[in-house]
């Protein structure tokens, strides 16, 4: 099943290009509810939350929301971490 959405942009050209190349989706913050702190890492804070998916087949699901701290300073490290996770 292919799901198509109209999502906003991150307002960071490098991150937006990475999202496009990896075929990821930028989901605006207002599409989440019940955001609760989970843990903090080296360059991000992780929350658990409910994604208010517009797709009726998916419904509302619990997901991890990763918020980057100091995006401009830590972007390369984050993108490298994503590549490592993807290769595992």
TrEMBL record:
InterPro entries: Kinase-like_dom_sf. Gene3D superfamilies: Phosphorylase Kinase, domain 1 (3.30.200.20). Residues 61-88 form a coiled coil. Keywords: Coiled coil. This is Protein kinase domain-containing protein. The lineage of its organism: Eukaryota, Fungi, Fungi incertae sedis, Mucoromycota, Glomeromycotina.
